[in-house]
Design brief:
Elements (H helix, E strand, L loop, with lengths): L3 E7 L20 E2 L2 E3 L8 E5 L4 E3 L16 E3 L4 H4 L7 E5 L8 H11 L5 E4 L6 E2 L12 H6 L7 E8 L5 H16 L3 E6 L21 E7 L11 H8 L3 E5 L3 H5 L6 E2 L5 H11 L3 H5 L1 H15 L1 H12 L1
Parallel strand pairs: 1-3, 1-4, 4-7, 7-8, 8-9, 10-11, 10-12, 12-13, 13-14
Antiparallel strand pairs: 2-3, 5-6
């Protein structure tokens, strides 16, 4: 049986590499069971529109009326047959990955509606999506699949880390930054990493490979930008577990359905109560030792079941 070739289109800036997702399989050239992931394939059998935005913000005209407009007008774009690479609608998949924040709800709905003209399956971690569902797992460690799958537990040397950023464009982002500042003021033994963090944060700086800022730690703060529904869960949780950390997780209930019990801890809130909880946990590595087997089980679930390549493989098998 020949493998189905899957191409991809995305609106993520900078995602141009032809080997996208090749680290998520133990086989060469993006092969996973009955599929092969070739992002730039000129004539794929299936096409994945991955966080593809049909809308784009237009610059404001420099006229009198534009001064009173709060946001630039939105112009929608159509896909040409050349862009679709000859893939028919019944073999085109649309997955919206970003969290369904209030600030982008209208844009998300526009994407879902316009995707209906090109795609037979349209999904997002969003109750407003035609098919609400969790987003299949991708991760951002540079390690090979085989290494992640077969490695021994890395040496643990420090209590806790948090990889985050200084993005503040939504209310949820600002809430996370407020919590970051509270943690800084509380002097918890947490190492912060990330780009564009506020100057008052004592950060270890930006990192290229998440592995080095997770693997040596017993615990990792995995705080989602959105916790308001039962679908959204992101790589923040997958990356933490794959580095053999015990995540202290703040997010929606999707993680409870997807992962084994006891494979992560629930951060109760982003306030003083949450800080007290973190302090209690990271004082000793006891919780990590108690849940080490659950972490191992969760890692296998992420690698072999929740993996986006496995999701695509099962989707295509069912559609044939």
């Amino acid at each position: 049986m020949s493998r189905a070739i899957i191409g991809m289109m995305t609106s993520y800036q900078g995602l141009t590499q032809s080997d996208w997702l090749w680290q998520q399989t133990p086989h060469p050239f993006g092969i996973w069971k009955n599929i092969q992931m070739l992002k730039n394939a000129p004539q794929p059998d299936y096409l994945l529109l991955y966080q593809y935005d049909f809308h784009r913000q237009q610059p404001l005209d420099k006229n009198w009326l534009s001064r009173f407009q709060k946001t630039p007008p939105i112009e929608t774009a159509s896909l040409t047959q050349a862009q679709l690479r000859g893939v028919p609608k019944e073999k085109t998949i649309y997955l919206l990955r970003e969290p369904p924040l209030d600030e982008v709800q209208q844009q998300n709905c526009t994407n879902y509606e316009l995707a209906k003209g090109y795609c037979s399956y349209i999904s997002g971690a969003d109750d407003l999506a035609p098919t609400p569902d969790y987003m299949p797992a991708i991760w951002y460690h540079a390690n090979s699949f085989r290494e992640l799958d077969q490695m021994p537990i890395p040496e643990k040397m420090a209590p806790c880390s948090w990889i985050t950023s200084g993005i503040n464009r939504t209310a949820n982002h600002r809430q996370r930054l407020d919590f970051l500042q509270k943690i800084q003021q509380s002097q918890l033994k947490i190492d912060f990493y990330g780009r564009n963090l506020p100057s008052h944060i004592q950060s270890q700086g930006e990192i290229k490979n998440k592995w080095y800022s997770m693997a040596p730690y017993y615990y990792n703060l995995a705080i989602e930008n959105y916790a308001g529904n039962s679908w959204y869960v992101s790589e923040k949780l997958w990356d933490s577990l794959l580095a053999w950390c015990l995540p202290i997780y703040y997010g929606g209930s999707a993680a409870d359905r997807l992962l084994p019990p006891n494979s992560f801890l629930r951060l109760p809130s982003l306030d003083e109560k949450g800080i007290a909880y973190i302090q209690e946990i990271i004082t000793t590595p006891d919780a990590w030792h108690e849940r080490k087997e659950a972490i191992a089980e969760a890692r296998q679930v992420i690698l072999h079941k929740l993996n986006l390549l496995n999701w695509l493989s099962e989707f295509i098998e069912l559609s044939c």
